[in-house]
Task: inverse folding
């Protein structure tokens, strides 16, 4: 049996690792937001990038979790 290619949106192999990475990116984003002072463009850009990274990992992990649960439900039925 040939292994299928992972979807373009899937950032990690498992939902657990996705949630862990999302939490790490969110923690770094929070630190960046708390240390940002108005007028510092680099800090603002970094905070935005880390926030978007956390959101991407979180969305990917949540989608994988939903797909796994849906597959389990269809196997039982």
Result:
């Amino acid at each position: 049996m040939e292994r299928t290619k992972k979807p373009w949106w899937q950032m990690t192999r498992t939902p657990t690792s996705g949630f862990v990475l999302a939490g790490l990116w969110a923690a770094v984003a929070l630190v960046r937001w708390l240390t940002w002072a108005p007028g510092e463009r680099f800090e603002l850009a970094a905070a935005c990038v880390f926030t978007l990274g956390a959101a991407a990992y979180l969305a990917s992990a949540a989608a994988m979790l939903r797909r796994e649960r849906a597959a389990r439900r269809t196997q039982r039925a």
